[in-house]
Amino acid sequence: MTQTEQKTVTFGDKTYSLDQQGFLDPPQQWDEDFANGMAEIQGIYGGLTKEHWDLIWYLRKKFIEEETVPVVVLACADNNLRLSDLRFLFPTGYHRGACRIAGINYDFMYSTNFWLTYETTTIPKEDYKLTPHGFLEDFDQWNERFAHLIIREWKLSQGLTDRHREIIGFLRDFFRRTKNIPTVYETCKANDLDLDELNELFPEGYHRGACRIAGLPIFA
To answer: What's this model's pTM, rounded to 2 decimal places?
Structure first.
């Protein structure tokens, strides 16, 4: 049984229920035993360090007190982490690693943050079939006009640049070949992209910004 097919997971003498994507649901079940157990499943051996816990508690504070999940570039900036540091700490990534260990469930991340960032949209639904989160339903339906419409939403003064096209081309080629979405670390490394430039090019972040504008499916 794969992690995304699991309905429950047991650590010690406590059993936790999970959603279809393998995230804690309901999130009120979270405790430190869950974090430690899930960390081992995620390939973090030897226990969670202070650096792990600093980010975990940061995410939980954002989740509980502010009812949001920061995009990866902001989480790194707030915690003085480079993307390579985050990758080292959480080898399965930000959402599927750090956020999962912190007990934030999938529906919250993509329903709550969708409401915050995509409350309105300028994309004509008669031209493009979109998911409730504003992503293209069909990868092959993408064209450059779709990218221009997203850029218009972001109100970027220079519009769709060659640098945008370079990143979009990489993302689409990677997904076409592998049927997987590259991690933010892979994308940055392959395109000599740092956090400042990523945030400038894609102000909605990596998944809801770069991947969405490239026509990649949500969290494939």
So the answer is: 0.56
Cβ atoms of residues 98 and 22 within 8 Å: no
- What are 173-217's pLDDT values in tens digits? 999 999 999 999 999 999 999 988 999 999 989 998 999 999 998
- Domains annotated for the chain, with CATH where assigned, are 3-114 (1.10.10.370), 118-213 (no CATH)
